[in-house]
Amino acid sequence: MKVITTGLLNRFWTKGIKPWLDKRIKSYADLMVTTASGYTPDALAVKEGFTELNGKLEMNIEQKTGQYKNQKLNKNVTVCSITLTPGLWLIIGYIDGNISSDFIYNNTLFDQTVRESMIGGGGSINVILRGIDTTTTVNLSTYDFVNVTSDLTYRGTLAAICLKPYL
Questions:
Q1: pLDDT tens sequence across 97-125
Q2: What stretches of 1-152 adopt beta strand conformation (E)?
Q3: Cα–Cα distance, 41 to 27 (Å, whole number)
């Protein structure tokens, strides 16, 4: 068995460990200005970078669900609604029903309507990419038909994802 002398430990430290420690990047600022290869980022420097990046990302998601029982009113009715702030929004509306019937129903967001059959309970998706300039209420609507059984309940989900806020 060989004894490790202080000289060997010093050489291991000065030739092996210390140069590696000197090449560690200990702050996010140093990490951003380093262009040479061979440097090892400290976990704290990487964490600072992700924290800064996450602070810059703004992912605002709004979602509501609702139901509307058919009342034979023969007019547009709101199933659910959300209020959106100014920004570029991806808006998704989904409507289905609780019964299977052979009639066509509407799924409307703003002025865009998707028509779908209620056979099998229906199920339609309406998607819009829309820039909103002022705080706006978005309604997911359908049409309350007079000739449809009143046992029908529309179920809706309205979701909106802010892709870019307008500041």
A1: 887 777 778 888 888 888 888 777 677 88
A2: 24-25, 40-41, 60-69, 75-84, 87-97, 104-109, 112-117, 124-132, 136-144
A3: 8
